[in-house]
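Sequence decides. Our protein:
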Amino acid sequence: MNYFYEPFLRSDHLVRLNVGDGLAPFIDSSANHTSVTVLRNKELCADKGALSDELSIGGTQVLNLITAPCASVGGSAVAMFAFDDNSDGVTDLATVPFPFPFLAFLGAVDLFIPTAPLGTVSVVTVPRGDFGAARTVNVPNLSSLTNRVVIQLNDFEQ
């Protein structure tokens, strides 16, 4: 796993690395695409109109009424998994890959993020429609066959 954090505001010798392989069988991997997990520890909501969150990965807005409904029974996602479901090279934001519709506080999108050419993927978040608080984290587009990219965002605005 490759972890990327927003800059820390103060010194601390404790950093929590969320690691788990329980979902690995459901996240397709390939040398042709990157898998990205974005953690915010604060719900990602797309059903709040002008006050909705925005999350753009590689230029694609991934939050919508299907992928990030706050009003859902299971609770809204505090982590969003983005990977090429079925490794087909096609993005489909109209459905949520299995088993994520049944998991509380976890969301997922079928997003094709190519590994070629080698470079970076920009992850942009706009919390609660506050464009002045937009933040960008750039990460390498590493092959999901051998790497997982995990981005930890702050759950507060500076």
